[in-house]
Specification:
The complex is a heterodimer. By secondary structure, chain A is an all-alpha fold. Chain A contains 15 helices and no strands. In chain A, helix 5 runs antiparallel to helix 6. Classes of the chains: A mainly alpha, B mainly alpha. Chain B: Keywords: Cell membrane, Membrane, Transmembrane, Transmembrane helix, Transport.
């Protein structure tokens, strides 16, 4: 297993190199190039020339790439042209919020999706089944940001049941240790702060979790329907095992394999794809920062964040592959 | 060939690809296309999807005839005040937007832009992706390794982030939007077609053609490629839905088409957010259009998959 993981990690190297090359080229192709990116839109030609000299942008392109790579390895992606702070610092400050949101969304999607999908398959052809199928098709067709707005207007603005923006109410004077606000509240025993942060996750979490929910329902349903017709299920039934045992040990365990893959892939996507939802709820995670960076043309932030998020995405994918090996012994043998 | 990331994810694509063009048992002699069409005609889901798509296309094509008013004329602008937008009334069945323009006419004209963005970006993604896929699938060896490494790198950037980067690079115009969406589709099509061609390459008919000394280009384009297309067709149909939703998302992020002379659903939806508390309908109508059309393409794509994919055949 260890060898498997090490080999996988080594195989990441060319992907990461390619990725860095792609984003390096991206910044170079932008109107004005990296100098403009770092200095912002209002930089004068003299500023740009000076910047190019200081940062060696008048050197051959491959020297520049190697330097970029050298800095990237040390997690140095330059400074935000808006705040002047290092991109990495900005990222680390905001990523915990996105992680919390993703965890909430996935718990929602899994907690609702697997039982629904299973039920739909068990009652194949019933109204529960058709409702789940239609619902899961709709879930994928709804633009996420529209759903987010809808939830916000109905439950936050009109009904006032749940908070509709930010990560925590301003009136709560919470201590932040880790920047995971819910966790912070628990660690410092400020229960009201933890609860408040959790409530702030509900609406954006549901909006963000809808697509994974729809996909998990479909995959679970299809997987259960597949497994039910397998020989080993027929054998288990034929040899007189209790129905509950067959369901638990043979049907559910096997059906959950493809579902776990989907869960992993979706988690990876959510960590990077919360731009829309976070923007609607002014959530203040990585996604909102990306939207701000688009509006203000803060290219350093865009480049750095996208590179880091792609690496996170690749690592989550790797984790999915590894965990698959753990869950399904057959994969390890292959 | 081994590559580094997302084995499970690639496996999903490859599994779809591997089942391309298998002739189902007991249906020898009937062409795949004909039996697929027969299946589609019997499938209510396919018919619903097809009806939605046809209505959408007809509305888009005939927009100037169907729209009751000029979608750009700010007819009722005089009645718009701070915090008030006139609602539905005589001659304006769906009301007007914050600039006093007829919503119904804008929706009807908007279908043109959505259709255009969907079709152009999908076709673009399809052509480039297929080019890469054919290259990899036909030559194999180091060409395959090289192309697929590149595709894997593209796959390692989440779709929306990729679209954002391309959009930012190319600036705000409708072509940038289409290219940005197309780029996210390229790796999927490439991988799909390659896998599908690899599974066809060693089929008896291809081996026979090779043994007979048929030229490689003829084998690839005349035999293997046509038999590898069905997963690509399915994916293409589904991509039309994704493209329209993605266009809306990019519009919302301020990366859409800035030309106000082309009403577009995504932009209408994005613009309606400012007046959501006054006239929520202004967001609901374009959103419904997007949902219904996306649903139409999805239903059609899914039933195409069932019709073309032997695994789903009953």
């Amino acid at each position: 297993m260890l060898r498997f993981i090490v080999r996988r990690l080594l195989q990441l190297v060319p992907i990461l190199l390619g990725l860095s090359l792609l984003l390096f080229t991206w910044l170079r192709l932008l109107p004005g190039g990296p100098a403009q990116a770092a200095l912002g839109e209002r930089a004068t030609p003299e500023d740009i020339e000076r910047y190019n000299q200081v940062f060696g942008l008048d050197q051959p392109i491959w020297v520049q790439y190697l330097k970029f790579l050298g800095r990237a390895v040390q997690l140095d992606f330059g400074n935000s042209s808006r705040t002047g702070r290092p991109v990495t610092t900005e990222f680390l400050e905001r990523f915990p919020g996105t992680i919390e949101l993703t965890v909430f969304a996935m718990v929602f999607a899994i907690g609702l999706g697997i039982p629904l999908g299973y039920l739909a398959a068990r009652k194949h052809g019933s109204w529960i089944d058709s409702t789940s199928v239609i619902g899961s098709l709709l879930g994928v067709a709804i633009p996420v940001f529209f759903l987010a707005y809808l939830l916000r207007v109905v439950f936050a603005v009109d009904l006032g049941w749940l908070p509709g923006s930010g990560r925590q109410s301003v009136r709560i004077d919470a201590t932040h240790v880790t920047n995971f606000y819910v966790l912070d509240g628990l660690l410092t025993r400020e229960w009201d702060a933890a609860l408040d942060a959790l409530l702030h996750l509900v609406l954006p979490g549901i909006a963000l979790g809808t697509i994974p929910l729809a996909i998990i329902v479909r995959i679970t349903r299809a997987a259960v329907l597949d497994v039910v017709n397998e020989d080993y299920v027929r054998t288990a039934n034929a040899k007189g095992l209790a129905t509950a045992t067959v369901r638990r040990r043979h049907i559910i365990r096997n059906a959950l394999l493809p579902v776990s893959t989907t869960i992993g892939l979706q988690t990876g996507l959510l960590l990077s794809g919360a731009v829309l939802t976070e923007t609607v709820f002014a959530f203040g995670g990585v996604g909102s920062a990306l939207k701000d960076a688009i509006d203000l043309r803060d290219y350093s932030i865009l480049q750095g964040f996208i590179l880091i998020l792609a690496v996170v995405y690749v690592l989550v994918n790797l984790l999915v592959d590894v965990s698959y090996g753990l869950l399904d012994p057959r994969v390890r043998v292959k | 060939m081994s590559a580094a990331l997302g084995d499970r994810r690639r496996e999903k694509i490859d599994a779809l690809a591997a089942r391309a063009g298998q002739v189902p048992e007991g249906e020898g002699g009937v062409s795949l296309t004909r039996s697929a069409i027969r299946r589609l005609r019997r499938d209510p889901v396919a018919i619903i999807g097809a009806v939605i798509v046809v209505v959408f296309v007809v509305v888009a094509v005939l927009a100037p005839l169907l729209a009751p008013r000029d979608p750009l004329a700010q007819t009722l602008l005089g009645q718009v005040r701070q915090g008030f937008i006139p609602g539905a009334q005589d001659g304006f069945p769906l009301g007007v937007d914050q600039l006093g323009r007829d919503t119904l006419s804008r929706l009807i004209y908007g279908s043109r832009q959505s259709l255009l963005i969907g079709v152009v970006s999908t076709v673009l993604g399809l052509v480039v992706g297929m080019g890469l896929g054919v290259l990899a699938g036909a030559f194999g060896g180091w060409v395959d390794t090289l192309v697929m490494r590149f595709v894997d790198i593209l796959l390692s950037i989440p779709g929306l982030l990729m679209a954002i980067s391309v959009s930012v690079l190319l600036g705000r115009n409708q072509y940038a939007l289409m290219i940005a969406i197309a780029v996210t589709q390229v790796p999927v099509f490439a991988r799909l077609l390659r896998g599908s061609m690899l599974s066809q390459r060693d089929k008896d008919y291809a081996v026979a053609a090779r043994a007979l000394g048929v030229k490689r280009s003829r084998i690839v384009f005349g035999h293997v490629l046509p038999n590898s297309l069905s997963p690509v067709i399915v994916q293409g149909t589904l991509s039309l839905a994704t493209a329209i939703i993605e266009a809306a998302a990019l519009s919302f992020l301020g990366l859409g088409d800035p030309d106000i002379s082309r009403p577009e659903w995504g932009a209408m939806l994005a613009n309606a957010q400012e007046v959501l508390s006054i006239r929520p309908e202004l967001a609901v109508y374009p959103a419904l259009c997007i949902i219904v059309v996306a649903l139409g393409f999805t239903l059609l794509g899914e039933s195409l998959r069932e019709a073309l994919d032997p695994k789903f055949r009953r």
